[in-house]
Design a protein that fits this description.
alpha+beta, four-stranded antiparallel sheet, three-stranded antiparallel sheet, 2 helices, 30% strand, globular
Length: 116
């Protein structure tokens, strides 16, 4: 659905899940909000972000290309501030699971893991 990088500021989506695949380049991304974990990502990595998962690109190579997608269910939005948090928590609970595993398709393991 999109091809770009990852925003350099902490943000999350409260009304939709997100999938990202790293096509080229490298980056250090913080997942989980301000106190989250910093992870190096590289070509071939696939990142699945359930609604409400904070993420922020801390640094990246010049050639970084990220392919991103959202499930057809849900609505794209971008949350950045603490003032949005209470409303976002209520919205996150209502986001349906995607119909298939975004990385491995209908028989992939993600949905079973997600439901557990």
């Amino acid at each position: 659905m999109w091809r770009n990088g990852i925003y350099p500021y902490a943000h999350y989506h409260s009304m939709i899940h997100e999938a990202m695949g790293i096509a080229r380049g490298r980056a250090k991304v913080r997942f989980g909000g301000e106190n989250g974990e910093e992870i190096e990502i590289a070509p071939g990595d696939v990142i699945i972000l359930p609604a409400g998962t904070g993420h922020q690109c801390l640094k990246h190579s010049r050639d970084l290309v990220v392919i991103g997608a959202y499930p057809p269910s849900g609505k794209y939005n971008l949350c950045r501030t603490k003032a949005e948090h209470a409303k976002a928590v209520a919205a996150i609970r209502k986001v349906p699971l995607p119909a298939t595993d975004p990385a491995f398709g209908p028989k992939g393991p993600l949905l079973a893991l997600w439901r557990a």
